[in-house]
Structures are given as C-alpha cells and as structure tokens.
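Practice problem 4.
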C-alpha cells in the first residue's frame, strides 16, 4: 500500500478520516505542543535527538544519519511490539514529525509495510502550526462577543462559569491559560502551557463556537500571565465587543478574593514574593505595607488596600484606554457570589442580551 500524504488543513478540519494521530517527535517537542488528540511515539528521545543533532553539526550529516538510523530502528521496534498487536488491518494511523520528513517517514513506512492504511502529514507539525496561526487571525472576526467587565473580585469569572452552565457559549481565556490574569494569578500546581500549546487550545475553543450565537468572554489585557493573546482576538474584544459591567459590593469582593486566594494564607511568603513584582508600579512603600498586612494575617485588610490603592485605579485607567464601549455599558449588580446568585445573574445577562438583539 502507498503512504497517503494529507494536507494540514484537511487534518485540522477533520477530513482526513483517521483512527489515531501519532506524533513521533521527542517528548520535549510533544510537550511544547501537538495536534489535538495526538499520542507520542518518539522515534528519538530528547537525549538521542541532541546526540544526533550534535553529530550532524560537528561531524557530518552522514555520520548523524548512521547513528540516528540505529536509534530510530530500535525505537520503532519498541513501539510496534507495544502498541500495534491488537490493531486490525484497516486501522488508519496518521503520522507526523516536525516537517513531515525522515522521522515520520520511517514509522509510516513500517506501518504501511504491515498493511495499515497509513497517512503522513505533509509538512508535519510546522504545517499544522501555520493553519492554527492563520485561523487565530481569521476566526475572532466572525464572533459576536459580549465582554464581562468589572473590577477585581467582582465575580466575572464565576459569572462566566454560570453562563456556561446556563447553556451560553463561553470563551474562558483564563482557564485556557491556566492563570487568573494578575501578578497573583498563577494557579498552584498548574503551570501555564507554552505559548504554542495555549494557541492550539484557543484555536480548538474558537472552532467550537457558533458565530451565529453570542459568545461571552471576560475582559483581559494582551497578556494572561506569560502568555500573549492573538491580536485579532484582542481587537475584536476591544473594538466590537459589547460590554456588560459586573458589579459587586466591596464586602462581597473581599469575601470572594479571600475564597479565591485562600491558598496564600497557608504560604504568606509566596504572596509577598509575588507582590514584589508590583514595586515598579506601586512603589516600595505600598508593597511593604501589603506584605506587612499579609504577614500579620490581616488578609481582608490586605485585599481591601490592594484594590483601593492599586487594582481599582489601574483597572479604570486600562478600561478607559481600551474599552470605549464600557462607559455606556449596562450594569449588572450581583446579589452575592454563591451559586444561586450567580445562576440568577446569568439569567439576567441572557435576558439582557436577548432584549438587545431584538432591539437591533
């Protein structure tokens, strides 16, 4: 059987008709990003890839290929013995590497010789990456975005979750980025993905949305933690998004932040280390005051002071620059931040949007 070469766009659109997607790159390459649903069958592990690369540069391509071929053959034999014994003859694997060259070609040849209906991704991961980047420029333009705005601790993220539970379309950027969007926003035990992995996750999320229906998203800056949002999405949010201002009383905001960041009470020094990043914006005196309050266990005062003297003024300046539509946005005051209050608020938001759509 001949190995079929398939285009990245066909794979992205689900038109390739495969039973498994096999990434033969090294574990480190796979961890940085991979095609959705792919499994990793590395034909060279990270150390072996470094060895072959060094030989290629420092000795000769021929020497590198001799050493690499033996390594690849042993790896492929291991994969065949471990994985393929139970697959029927009509099994349809898709194999790819970085550029669709020798690494994926080697495994694809063996699978084809066994008799499987093998396909190889033309251009490899690099071609898929080009599809993702093109779609991240294209997909946001078609979306009808409703942007939840509101000060820190006002319950925007929880309202977003309540909207999803109510059946609305939601784009949860902070969940995709594994970060809550401020200097305090790193999620314990959940490191952020790589930029490429984040963009693939975002690409999947955007492709799942129906442009004919409203999409709810939280207002964000250009960066969430260390990750950059695509320019097209930022532009769509800021220039065409319909803002809904979410409000919560100050005591409710403090209570919510105490819940969200309860882990800091068990490790005040981690909190203080993160606050140190605010010195260029807030100055040493304010940061030292917040750190002293935290070390004294006065957490409600800490968050209240942080909001009054840093987050609220910063947020207002940023929103005035970037979300002109916020000034005329309808206000939604949460009656609390528990599940019933958020469910009621989600119904109010959906009613508000429905009335607005009927009025246009």
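Answer key:
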């Amino acid at each position: 059987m001949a190995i079929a070469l398939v285009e990245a766009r066909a794979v992205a659109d689900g038109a390739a008709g495969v039973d498994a997607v096999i990434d033969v790159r090294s574990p480190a390459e796979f961890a940085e990003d991979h095609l959705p649903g792919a499994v990793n069958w590395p034909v060279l592990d990270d150390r072996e890839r470094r060895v072959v690369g060094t030989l290629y540069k420092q000795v000769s391509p021929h020497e590198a290929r001799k050493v690499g071929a033996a390594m690849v053959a042993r790896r492929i034999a291991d994969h065949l013995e471990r994985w393929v014994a139970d697959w029927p003859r009509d099994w349809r694997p898709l194999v790819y590497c970085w550029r669709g060259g020798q690494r994926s070609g080697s495994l694809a040849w063996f699978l084809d010789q066994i008799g499987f209906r093998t396909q190889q991704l033309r251009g490899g991961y690099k071609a898929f990456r080009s599809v993702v980047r093109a779609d991240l420029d294209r997909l946001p333009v078609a979306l009808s975005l409703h942007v939840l705005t509101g000060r820190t601790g006002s319950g925007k993220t929880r309202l977003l979750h309540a909207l999803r539970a109510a059946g609305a379309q939601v784009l949860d950027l902070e969940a995709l980025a594994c970060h809550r969007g401020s200097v305090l926003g790193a999620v314990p035990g959940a490191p952020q993905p790589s930029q490429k992995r984040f963009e693939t996750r975002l690409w999947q999320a955007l492709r799942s949305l129906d442009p004919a229906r409203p999409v709810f998203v939280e207002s964000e800056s250009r960066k969430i933690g260390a990750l950059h949002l695509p320019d097209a999405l930022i532009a769509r949010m800021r220039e065409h998004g319909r803002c809904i201002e979410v409000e919560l009383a100050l005591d409710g905001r403090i209570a919510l932040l105490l819940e969200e960041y309860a882990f800091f009470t068990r490790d005040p020094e981690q909190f203080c280390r993160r606050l140190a990043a605010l010195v260029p914006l807030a100055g040493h005196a304010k940061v030292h005051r917040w750190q002293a309050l935290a070390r004294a266990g006065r957490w409600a005062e800490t968050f209240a002071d942080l909001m009054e003297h840093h987050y609220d003024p910063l947020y207002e300046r940023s929103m005035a620059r970037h979300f002109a539509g916020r000034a005329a946005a309808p206000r939604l005051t949460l009656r609390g931040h528990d599940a019933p209050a958020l469910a009621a608020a989600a119904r109010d938001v959906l009613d508000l949007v429905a009335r607005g759509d009927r009025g246009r």
